């Protein structure tokens, strides 16, 4: 069962046993003055998962101090970079299975991927 409540006071009950991913839709623009990304959270629920986290945007709306946001942004970027590198490494291993035993080609592929 899923129960959804909105800020407008509407509610909805869903008795189905399936849990489908949903996210709050948003619109984003580059900030006009400080260069920060401007996010407008819409009062709509979209199908599927959100393509990224908006935690830093919510923290900025909550007026978390700028120095804390800067540290969090660096840590978030590091985590995204590490995750991307692991995924690319996994893709390279899968491709290695397709290529066979040609380690020279695999080394060249991995080197090329790491430069992305």
UniProtKB/TrEMBL annotation:
Region described as Disordered: spans on this chain: 1-33
Which residues belong to any copy of the DNA mismatch repair proteins mutS family domain?
Answer: 35-80
Work out whether the entry's keyword set contains Kinase. Answer: no
- Provide this UniProt record's keywords sorted from A to Z: ATP-binding, DNA damage, DNA repair, DNA-binding, Nucleotide-binding
Any single GO BP term: mitotic recombination
One GO cellular component term of this record is:
nucleus
Which InterPro entries does this one have? DNA_mismatch_repair_MutS_C, MutS, P-loop_NTPase
Q: Where is the composition biased (Polar residues)?
A: 18-29
According to the UniProt entry, which residue ranges have a biased composition of type Basic residues?
Answer: 1-11
GO terms for MF: ATP binding; ATP-dependent DNA damage sensor activity; mismatched DNA binding
Kindly provide the name given to this protein in its UniProt entry.
MutS protein homolog 3
């Amino acid at each position: 069962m899923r129960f959804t409540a909105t800020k407008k006071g509407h509610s909805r009950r869903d008795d189905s046993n399936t849990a489908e991913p949903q996210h709050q839709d948003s619109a984003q623009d580059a900030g006009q003055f400080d260069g920060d990304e401007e996010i407008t959270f819409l009062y709509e629920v979209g199908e599927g998962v959100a393509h990224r986290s908006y935690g830093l945007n919510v923290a900025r709306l909550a007026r978390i101090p700028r120095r804390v946001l800067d540290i969090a942004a660096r840590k978030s970027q590091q985590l995204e970079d590490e995750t991307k590198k692991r995924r690319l490494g996994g893709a390279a291993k899968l491709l290695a299975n397709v290529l066979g035993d040609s380690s020279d080609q695999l080394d060249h592929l991995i080197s090329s991927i790491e430069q992305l």
